[in-house]
Automatic annotation (TrEMBL):
The gene coding this protein: gpsA
Positions contributing to NAD(+) binding: 12-17, 142, 257
Xref: Pfam families: NAD_Gly3P_dh_C, NAD_Gly3P_dh_N
Domain Glycerol-3-phosphate dehydrogenase NAD-dependent N-terminal: 8-161
Family statement drawn from the similarity comment of this UniProt entry: Belongs to the NAD-dependent glycerol-3-phosphate dehydrogenase family.
Keywords: Cytoplasm, Lipid biosynthesis, Lipid metabolism, NAD, NADP, Nucleotide-binding, Oxidoreductase, Phospholipid biosynthesis, Phospholipid metabolism
Name of the protein described by the UniProt record: Glycerol-3-phosphate dehydrogenase [NAD(P)+]
Positions bound to substrate: 110, 257-258
Keyword Oxidoreductase in annotation: yes
NCBIfam families listed in its UniProt record: PRK00094.1-2, PRK00094.1-4, PRK00094.2-4
InterPro entries: 6-PGluconate_DH-like_C_sf (IPR008927), 6PGD_dom2 (IPR013328), G3P_DH_NAD-dep (IPR006168), G3P_DH_NAD-dep_C (IPR006109), G3P_DH_NAD-dep_N (IPR011128), NAD(P)-bd_dom_sf (IPR036291)
Amino acid sequence: MAEQRMRVAVLGGGSFGTALASIAADNGARVRQWLRDPALVAQINTQHCNGRYLPDYAINPAVVASSDMDEVLAGAELVLVAIPSKAFREVVRMARPYLNEHQILVSTTKGIQQDGFKLMSQILEEETGFTHIGVISGPNLATEIAQKQLTATVVASDDAETRTRVQTALGCDYFRVYASNDRYGVELGGALKNIYAIAAGMAAALGMGENTRSMLMTRALAEMSRFAVDQGANPMTFLGLSGVGDLIVTCSSDLSRNYRVGFALGQGKSLDEAVEALGQVAEGVNTVRLVRDKAREDGVYMPLAEGLYQVLFEGVPAREMARMLMLGEQSSDVEFILSRADVQQAHRESEGHDD
Ligand SMILES: NC(=O)c1ccc[n+]([C@@H]2O[C@H](COP(=O)([O-])OP(=O)(O)OC[C@H]3O[C@@H](n4cnc5c(N)ncnc54)[C@H](O)[C@@H]3O)[C@@H](O)[C@H]2O)c1
Ligand SMILES: O=P(O)(O)OC[C@H](O)CO
């Protein structure tokens, strides 16, 4: 008997939703993609192209787009939600009447909801109460996936069926899917790295070099890990694709929207101008605000997030902020080996001896 094709629904008509829909179709799945814009629906169905978000990409012709949520979700076994964080809950609520508990729901969105500091898979859980919930996250620039550049991602869920089904649906010769059971850590890494990508873009525009980028990325990882520990997550997850992997790509490539926003800011554009020129979502702008507030609330030391916040929202010049960060407290390299507190204590003692 012929193997049954997996039925996949993708919610979202942006670059990542479009790339994922096409991967699943390349893999032989029956794919339906939901998006709001009827003109884009028609373009995907007739020209197999998403001219607004991925103009040079030939979408697998088996992908069928629609603005009818019922039609898209009917019979779907796997639902991938690729909607920016600001609209994520609203779209999940629209979808809710057409969802059932047997379906696997996966967030692909790297952002945080302001209200309650919720990650997107927590919203999926809250809105549905289902058990097959997961996330995918990793170094996944949609434009490179569209070029079929060899790429890897992570599916994270504490539900083995969710992990296995996503690996089967999306794993192919140009897209490799690794599994994790640390859903929170994987999702947190994807959201946090956007902050540092903005800083990296800004540093590049200011003419800072590779030493600077390397310092920024490594200290970003230290800061992300500190925050993860505070949130009760496992910092070891950040050693994987969804942590250090995504940090590397997003801090190094001008295909990253967050990096591009930072670059535009470094060139002297205002935040509004930079975001408007981008015309797509750069989740880091919102995330830096939320993470900085949360870090202050919880007393977590996050000088890079704090510094970027002040540059973005309080008008502190980026060069001045870089100087202040360089002259900040003497600290430890790997805090899991030598703690910050120990370094500070040693400085206090040394100052005491000098008296
Ligand atoms: N693009 C990438 O390279 C990439 C890679 C990995 C993860 N992601 C994540 O995927 C998420 C989605 O990003 P994207 O790149 O596809 O975004 P995008 O900016 O390319 O497109 C966003 C899509 O969401 C739709 N949308 C926005 N508000 C909506 C609403 N209220 N109702 C319905 N649709 C709405 C837009 O119309 C558009 O189709 C982001 O959070 C991003 O972090 C993106
Ligand atoms: O374009 P960005 O900055 O949203 O980054 C896209 C992906 O998250 C890279 O993994």
